[in-house]
Amino acid sequence: MNRLSAPVMLFAHDMFFESDSNDDHEESGEEKNIFGVAVRFGVSKSTAWAAVLRICKAVIDLNRRYGLIKWPSRQRCFTISRNFEEKHHIPGIIGAIDGSHIKIVAPKQYPNSYINRKGYHSMVLQSICDHQKLFTDVYVGEAGSVHDYTVFFKSDMSKRPLEDFPNDTHLIGDLVYRLTKTLLVGFKDNGYLTDRQKNFNKTLSKARVIIENAFALLKGRFRRLKYMETIILENTVTIILTASILHNICILNDDEFHDIGNLNEEILGERLRNPRNERDINVPEENRQAQLKRSEIVNVLLLRNL
């Protein structure tokens, strides 16, 4: 891989880390920023964009070579599961899954399909993270109107073989997902939940906070993700993926970031929760094995709380 020059690195820094955009977006934050970068270095906007995309390609190539975002090995699954269990008492967790909406400018093609339930244009980022907030799987590019479970169903994650979940391990998610042997979700509150089921839901919710925190860190570091005005959607996907890889690089190098302020509240607002129902996608009901597995974990939590 070719070395990147200092100006190219500075181009990318200004694009990823600094944002001049405001809440009403009357002026294009990204175009303002790329114009500022271009002026700073005495080049055209097209040259500045080329530099940004060049470093994105370099980061993505690094990920291909070194697996900066990768599914955990069998031994790594054991480490992740042990850490989750020590903190939350739920056995077998190797990751938390969730989706986050990245606000974008209205695309020229099919703009209405990108309008989410809150009424703004967005692109969905689905991620899985471990106990360290490291992303182990990222899927980005679906339109904001697409339901989270449909995003999951269309992603490679929904097709992962059981061999990728050693020793009966699983992910954890919220009620937009369907309960399976490899994806543990809470009980839907129908008004008749038992105390055991309520305790399970509460414990699972605390464990799932890790992925919300990971998204908060991602958007806290790379504030460009708070509003993307990249005209070409393919470039939007490239930048989001690059930021996700850089997120992992920061964590792996102990580059701590604490200035997230109220970002967790912002992330919660962008999650646009919509519990799954049969109108969203035609899927079978919870299978018996998954129900039994969840019931066993409910009993494990009860015993550990005695």
What does this structure look like?
- GO terms for molecular function: hydrolase activity; metal ion binding; nuclease activity.
- Its cofactor is a divalent metal cation.
- This is DDE Tnp4 domain-containing protein.
- With 306 residues, the chain is α/β, with parallel strands linked by helices.
- The chain folds into two domains: 59 residues, no CATH class; 237 residues, no CATH class.
- It contains nine helices and five strands; from the N terminus they run H-H-H-H-E-E-E-H-E-E-H-H-H-H.
- It has a five-stranded mixed β-sheet with strand order 3-2-1-4-5, with helices on both faces.
- The radius of gyration is 20 Å and the shape is globular.
Record the SSE blueprint:
Blueprint: H1 6-17, H2 29-41, H3 45-66, H4 74-88, E1 93-103, E2 122-129, E3 135-143, H5 148-154, E4 170-172, E5 183-184, H6 195-221, H7 233-252, H8 263-271, H9 288-305
Parallel strand pairs: 1-4, 4-5
Antiparallel strand pairs: 1-2, 2-3
Helix pairs in contact: 1-2, 1-3, 2-3, 3-7, 6-8, 6-9
